[in-house]
Design goal:
421 residues, alpha/beta, Rossmann fold, 2 domains, globular, binds zinc ion
Length: 421
């Protein structure tokens, strides 16, 4: 049943108003908004609600925050994370081998961040490498003569300007940003316009299937507007005379999917991969085209919340000291959704020096460096919000664990390391 009485939103992808609520997270502070105590009073909060579209099966956050507010305090630089740097190097090698002729080919990436993928593409000998990104400070950090930069949102106008100067592109790439842009229809028209007839549009986003199967509700925040399934992507591109012809699951961020998209009638369109066919069948079997599936997901995360909070309360009652680990957007969602407060956690640990001395958005935990874990008075437990990097975090903090420290991993199931704690 579709409860349209409560839905005043239309679908970002297909304009349908046949949308139903999956989860209401309440009024939530913005994930990137680290602050100082004197700013606590003025901190804005915004509703965060996820809806399912009955017509195109997309799952989306309907509360769009103006970009100037959203990215005011942006702490995220891709190249500073080693795992990501290696990931994008392999990515560049792979797409070049499969689709591009070094010395001739042209590639454009929008939402290019600090050039983490553009540089390895230039290393592969791609002749024209264009990066488009609206963030001035991030683009300024690229500083590579092989890369042409356009400081803008990738709109149809910008696409036309680029095509008139460089011709149509052999490949357009977008990573994560394809889940973040409010005007997804305009951007997709820009892609269709700028891509050559046999060109390939590649984008990588967090995969909805992982969010559901591993209960990754902490992936949901204001910046992250769209959660793609293959079924929703197929419906989406069909409206632009394009189609998904291949996919590749990638382990980054605990479950991304790379989508390969081409124009209908192009030479790639005749070769739809086996993995696309298999995933389509699997998603239908798992009910990604039905609202009931997402209602079940909503019930599951409500019980996860109960379980996690009960554990924290039990530990606190027995006098344990607990800190959070990983002051990310994911932590922000979980903390605010679960109502984790200063009764549960003492402070937040983060490895990024830029965050030290600030306080977490919404919950206002002080951010301290991970060196506290090897100092006297270290917490008895750390709740690892950056749980998708748990192996790396355990290795980096062997001494803490050897000295009797414990790590609480909140997802996919609440569990404690070491096990016999
Ligand atoms: Zn829709």
């Amino acid at each position: 049943m579709i409860d349209q009485s409560t839905c005043t939103h239309s679908c970002s992808f297909c304009d349908s108003q046949r949308m139903s609520l999956v989860m209401d997270f309440g009024e939530v502070a913005l994930a990137g908004g680290f602050l100082k105590p004197e700013q606590f009073d003025q901190e804005p909060r915004f509703p965060l609600q996820v809806y399912f579209c009955h017509d195109c099966y997309s799952v989306q956050v309907v509360n769009k925050i103006p970009p100037d507010i959203l990215f005011h305090n942006y702490f995220y630089f891709s190249s500073s994370i080693n795992t990501l740097r290696d990931h994008f190097r392999r990515y560049a090698e792979e797409v070049t081998t499969r689709f591009l002729k070094p010395g001739v080919a042209s590639v454009l990436e929008f939402g290019c961040n600090d050039g983490v993928l553009l540089r390895p593409l230039a290393d592969q000998g791609i002749r024209t490498v264009i990066g488009v990104d609206p963030a001035k400070n991030i683009v300024a950090s690229i500083d590579d003569p092989r890369v042409t930069l356009v400081n803008a949102f990738f709109t149809e106008d910008v696409a036309e300007r680029i095509v008139s100067e460089y011709g149509k592109l052999d490949m357009i790439v977008a990573n994560n940003v394809y889940a973040h842009i409010p005007d997804i229809q305009g951007t997709t028209r820009a892609v269709a316009k700028a891509l050559s007839d046999d060109g390939v549009f590649v984008f990588e986003v967090h995969y909805l299937g992982k969010v559901i199967s591993e209960m990754q509700y902490d992936m949901i925040y204001h910046e992250h507007l769209y959660y793609y399934s293959l079924l929703s992507a197929m419906k989406h591109f069909d409206r632009y005379d394009m189609m998904v012809f291949d996919i590749k699951p990638v382990p980054i961020h605990a479950g991304s999917m790379r989508f390969y998209v081409c124009k209908k009638g192009s030479r790639h369109s005749a070769l739809v991969s086996q993995s696309v066919k298999m995933l389509e069948v699997e998603e239908r079997a798992n009910g990604f085209d039905r609202y009931e599936t997402f209602q079940r997901f909503s019930d599951d995360i409500l019980s996860h919340r109960k379980k996690l909070v009960a554990l924290l309360e039990k530990l606190k009652q027995s006098g344990k000291k607990i800190a959070g680990y990983g002051a990310s957007g994911r932590a922000n969602t979980m903390i605010q959704f679960c109502g984790i407060g200063h009764d549960h956690l003492d402070y937040m640990i983060d490895d990024a020096p830029a965050k030290t001395g600030y306080y977490t958005p919404g919950s206002h935990f002080r951010v301290v460096p991970s060196s506290v874990l090897t100092e006297p008075g270290a917490p008895d437990y750390v709740l690892v919000f950056a749980w998708s990097f748990i192996d790396e975090i355990r290795k980096r903090n062997v001494r803490y664990l050897e000295n009797g420290g414990h790590m609480i991993v909140p997802l996919p199931d609440v569990r404690i390391h070491p096990i016999n704690a």
